[in-house]
Design goal:
Blueprint: H1 6-13, H2 17-25, H3 32-42, H4 51-55
Helix pairs in contact: 1-2
Length: about 55
């Protein structure tokens, strides 16, 4: 996604690669701040994407 590896996106979020993997899997929930940050990253490609579309659809 967006040219990121799991390691690079984990670094962007300030978490371990394992924590990112667990968030992707749904084992660990994203915080509200992480949801906003992820939305902002996706807006480069999807300008009108909402948090609901990303996390709740």
């Amino acid at each position: 996604m967006l040219g990121y590896t799991q390691a690079s996106i984990a670094k962007e979020f300030g978490i371990s690669k394992q924590s990112w993997f667990l968030k992707e899997k749904g084992t660990i929930a994203f915080s509200d701040d992480e949801k906003i940050k992820f939305q902002q990253m996706l807006k480069e490609i999807f300008p009108i994407i909402t948090i609901d579309e990303i996390f709740f659809n």
